[in-house]
Each structure stands twice: as structure tokens, then as C-alpha cells.
Amino acid sequence: MDFYFKEFEHRKPPEPVPHSMSRELLYQYLATCNLTLGLWYLWWRWSFALNYDAMWFAFPLAFAESCAFVGSVLFTFNLWKTKDEPKRPPPHTIDECVSDDSPEGGDTRPISIDVFFPTYDEEPELVRLSIQDAQKIRYPYDIEIKIFILDDGKRPDMAALAQEMGVEYITRENNVGFKAGNLRNALEQTYGDFIVICDADTRPFPTILENTIGYFRDPDVAWVQTPQWFFDLPEGERLPKWLNRKVGRFGAMLGRGIERFYGPVTLGEDPYVNDPQMFYDVIQRRRNWVNASFCCGAGSIHRREAVMEAALRSYSEQISKEHREVEKQIRKITKEKSVDSEVSDNLRQEIIFDTEFTPYKFHVSEDIYTSIVLHSDTERNWRSVQHPEVESKMLSPQDLQTWTVQRFKYSGGSIDIFMNDNPILRKGMDWKQKMMYGASFWSNLSAVWNIIFLLCPIIYFLTSIAPVSAYDVTFYLHFIPFVLTAELAMMVGTWGVSGYKGKTNFLSFFPVNMRALWTVLRGRKISFPTTPKERQTGTFGKLVIPQKIIFGLSLFSMGFAWFSYLTGAFGNYSLGGLIFNSFWTVNNMMAMWGMIAAAYWSPPPTDKEQEQQESEELEYGI
Whole-angstrom Cα distance, residue 535 to residue 544? Predict the structure, then answer.
């Protein structure tokens, strides 16, 4: 099978951003200044800068600014410091990975590893590439490595592939629990000390075990997450080459002239902002110091004991919760203060019989759910480690439809946990861990205030009504220092990792985010679709209709307001208000444009395809 990503096989992953204590201290200083200025700004906004003649407009904006500031506080705490877990040499035997009082203490047998590749409808040839790389995994000492294809598609060609490549094949009669159920089924039939979780397209590097198993010398380490790296991200096309394809030689000359003045211009580089370096190298890595980096599925290594203990704890909690709820209903019906002990015992037995025991929560975000259970275990005090180096490569969503499905699943899963089993209210975690989890969940609620930020300048332009008391010098004296220090702190705090695209993507993400929130609020379940590994054909303009509406309204309203101001035809605009809201609107439009352009993006033709196209044009005289 001819895969599109074969031309990217030569790519190498980025190195982790080196830690700098001086840069970290500078970030902490700037972030502290920013939060102080933010509190000052919000105090002034609520106390003196509301437009009391238009509270219907003023209050939502002040509310949105307050919500965004809460997010800034959480994000600042997340980025506060970097403290990588010290690397330790790979253990020789299993007794080096357990406590002295463990039944396996003193056991000098080699470590056993199970490598899981859950699959449902992915191409067998794609899985073949993953298995081939997994078979190259090395370790400096004797070790037992077993590779398993976990086929929820029950496909004969996948079973044949497993037999051909000499790996194990596991399937089941149903698809209960989807991926989580697939993993549970495999755990019941395997026995490795540690489990490497992969996706069907995960291509582990030979070093994945020798660089990570050493962390498990600490018997309290439950899992190690390695960064996910998408090796197929589009590199984009330089402006002269793109113009040459579109309009010919004159376009190429024009493109070179623009670049000579402006510098290199690349179009179509990572159009869906899939690069996960910001998440793994900055956000996750800086959670190590409070033991709050969570599992993200593919590329993670788990201690089997921890997975099973999390399952037992969740099982017990679920039974107790259902038992309390049923007893509450019985007391309500019978008007009794308590339920008879014999009835209560029988009731618990029935619940135990009806409740399924599962090592992985049957949830669209089973990885973060398991992380929460283990981090809140006060008896065992499990730890997690975010490993800084990339140890595998995988494929990214190649079209907006696939990207939307994936983001909806991630956002909906997080919101569902926040609404129904909020870790902030859960016993067992300390306040630092709750702050870190809170940062993740709060960001998934951002569509609520991002919509307000998108609509406010449009409303001002169309009505000339300001949400603040005045766009005067006092306003700018409070606003500009807050924004400038925020940008400086962000720049220093994420040094070495590009962040602008991520910020604009975060703003333009609002329709998917809002849909996920609405789905959870209605009590609907978030579905478990697999992410397609091939680009879906066509364009996806329908998916960005909300962004198009915002872009169009922003452009029209800004033109209308400036025309009205210059001609005096309508409204009571101030020059300060027009300038401020114009900058605001341009920023919003740039964010929307990135998502709109992504809907119509298609990869440029390869050199071979370009040559074929040119030969056809010559043949037909085009």
C-alpha cells in the first residue's frame, strides 16, 4: 500500500527545550507582575469602568474577562517551574522495580513487557509498520517482550498479519467499552510486569524501554508518559513556489520579491495546528514537580500492578456510589431513616453482580480518568512521570473533519469528567494537583467566554455602544500594562516552542468546544469514533460556517463603524474606541481565517505528481 507519509520517514523529532534557571526566574517575575496587574485591572473594571447605561453589554464582557483571568492564573501555575524526573539506569531484573516488602522482592527473573496495539478498522499494512518498529525495541539486559495486536474488528487479514509477523493476536466477541474494553480484554489474557500502550499507527523507537523503564526503579511510579510526535505534519510551501503553481513564472518572481522585502513566507505549514510540542514539552513536563502529569494513551508505559489497583479502587467507589443512591431512593419511598441491614447487604450483592470490573474506565477519556484515580489514591501514593524525550512517532489528522472529530472527543471527554466526577472535589489529591487538573478542565470551558470576546467588538461597531465607561487614557493605563506583561510572560515561559498558532487556534475552536459542552449538559454520551489515518477527500467548508459568520460580521461591522465615524452618518463613536476595537477585531479575524483556510487546505503535489501534471499539460497543449 502506498502511504502518503513515506516521504516523511527521514524526519527527526525535536529535542526537548533545555531548562534554564535564569529564564525560569524571569518568567516567574513577569508572571507575578502580570497577575498583579490583572487583579488591579479587574478591580478597576468592576468598580469604575462598567457602562451602567448598557449593563446588558458591560456585564458579560467583565464576566468573560474574569473567567479568562482565572484561566491565566491556572496556566501561570502550570508553567511555574520545570523539574524533570532524574533519569535512572535500566533495571536488570524485576526485583529492582518493586519495594522490599513486595512478593516479588528478591525475584531475579527478567522483566516482562507487553506491547499493546489496539485496532479497529485501520489498514493491516499500517499496523505492519508499527509492529516492525516494535520488533526493533532493544534493552541492555535479558527481557521478555511480547507484542499483541488487539483487534476489535475481528478481521481475518489482521489475524493473518499477526501470524506472519510472529506476534500475538487477541480479539473478542463484542466491542463493549470500545478501546478501554479492548485493553481490559487484553489485560485479562496477559501477564507482563509493564504495559506499553500504543495506537495502531504508533511507531515506537528502539530506545523506548531503555530510556523509560529506569523510572520504575521507584516502586511508586505507576506510569511514564512519553511525548507524542506527529512526523507527518505538513512543512508548507514557500510563497514563490506556491505562486508559481497558481499563476506561473510571473507569480514566482512576485513571490521572491515579497520575500526579499518581508522575509521567508511559508503557506500551509501545520494547517490544523497539530504539533503537540507545546502540550508535552511545556504543559505536561511542568506538571512533574507536583506529580500531576496525566496519561495521554499512546506512547505510555504502565505498571500492571497500578492499573489493576486503579481498577479495584474505581470498582469499589462505583459500587458504594450506586449503593448510596439506591438506599436514598428506598428511604424516600418508605419514609424510613435507614434501610434494614439485611436488605442493604442483599442490595450491595446485587450491585456487585451487575457492575462490570474494568481496569480501564469505559470512557472516551479513559487515560485521564485512570490518572485521576491513581493520583487520588492516598493509601498507595502513586506517582507519574512525563519523560521529556520523544520515543515514538505517529500520524496526525490530515483534514479538518478528522481533526474536528478528534478535538470533539478530547474536549467532550474532559468536560464530562469535570461535570460528573470532578477531580477538584475528589478526596486524595493535594491542592497543587487539583490546580493542575483544574487548568486542563477550565480551558475546555473557554468557549463560553471566547464567544463573548468574539462578539463584543462586532456589537460596538454596529451600535456605537461601549461595554466600558470610556475608551480614555485611564482605560489604556490599566489595560496595556496587563496585556503587555501577559505577552512577555508567555513568550519567556514558552521559550523555544511556537505559541501564536496555538493561541489563535484556541480562539477559533469555539464551535467544537461549545458543541461538546452542550452534549455533556444534555446528558448525552461522547462517542468513541476511531481517528481515520488517511486524508478524507474534499473540502470541509460546512464545518467552519460559525467562523465564516464571525469573520464576515467582523469585517462588515468594522467597515460600517469607520464609515459612520468619518461621515457622521450614524452613532456616537470615539476614535479611541474605534482604534481599540479594530485591533481586537483584526486579531479575531486572523484567528478565524486560520481555521477557514484549514477547511480548504490540501497538500501540495509531490515532485512526482507535479512532473506528471506538467507532462499532461504539454501533451494536451494546455
Answer: 18
Using an 8 Å Cβ cutoff, are 516 and 444 in contact?
yes
Contacts of 378 (CB under 8 A, 6+ apart): 427, 428
How far from 267 is each of 238, 488, 493, CA to CA, in Å?
6, 27, 27
Alpha carbons 30 and 583: distance in angstroms, whole number = 24
CA 315, 316, 320, 323 dihedral sign is positive
Mean pLDDT of the chain: 88
Count CB atoms within 10 A of the CB of residue 61. Answer: 22
Sign of CA dihedral 94, 96, 99, 102: positive
d(CA 341, CA 564): 77
Fill in the amino acid letter for 507.
L
Write out the three cell numbers for 107: 525475584
Instruction: Indicate the pTM of the whole model.
Output: 0.86
Q: Which string of DSSP letters, residue by residue, matches 69-100?
A: HHHHHHHHHHTS---PPPP-PPPSSGGGGS-T
Sign of the CA dihedral with 32 first, then 34, 35, and 37 last: positive
Residue 343: in which H helix or E strand, if any?
Answer: helix 341-354
Q: Give the sign of the dihedral formed by CA 521, CA 525, CA 530, CA 535.
A: negative
The sign of the torsion formed by the CA atoms of 321, 327, 333, 336 equals negative
Q: What is the mean pLDDT of residues 426-440?
A: 93
The per-residue pLDDT for 353 is 59
In the numeric block, which cell numbers belong to residue 220?
A: 511508586
Rounded CA-CA distance 317/338 in Å is 21
| Rounded distance between C-alpha atoms, residue 532 and residue 137, angstroms | 26
Say yes or no to pLDDT of 320 above 80. no
Name the residue among 392, 438, 447 with its Cα closest to residue 418. Answer: 438
Strands (E), 387-515: 392-393
| Residues 238 and 402 sit within 8 Å (Cβ to Cβ) | no
Crossing angle between the packed helical segments 447-463 and 575-599, to the nearest 10 degrees: 130
For the chain, counts of helices (H) and of strands (E): 20, 11
Beta-strand relationship, 221-225 and 383-386: parallel
At 115 the three-state DSSP class reads strand
Residue 169, strand partner residues: 149
The answer on pLDDT for 444 being more than 70 is yes
For the record, the C-alpha cell of 315 comes out as 470498582
Q: Is residue 174 left, alpha or beta, with left meaning phi > 0 and alpha meaning psi from -120 to 50?
A: beta
DSSP class of residue 288 equals: G
Q: Does the pLDDT at position 217 exceed 90? A: yes
pLDDT band at 352 (very low <50, low <70, confident <90, very high): low
Helix axes 239-247, 249-262, angle to 10 degrees: 160
- Residue 609 exposed, middle or buried by CB count within 10 Å (0-12, 13-18, 19+): exposed
d(CA 235, CA 228): 18
Find the range with the poorest average confidence among 114-128, 168-182, 213-227, 344-358.
Answer: 344-358
Q: CB-based burial of residue 287 (10 Å sphere; 0-12 exposed, 13-18 middle, 19+ buried)?
A: buried
Is pLDDT above 90 for 65? yes
Cβ contacts of residue 183 below 8 Å, gap of 6+?
116, 118, 150, 197, 359, 360, 366
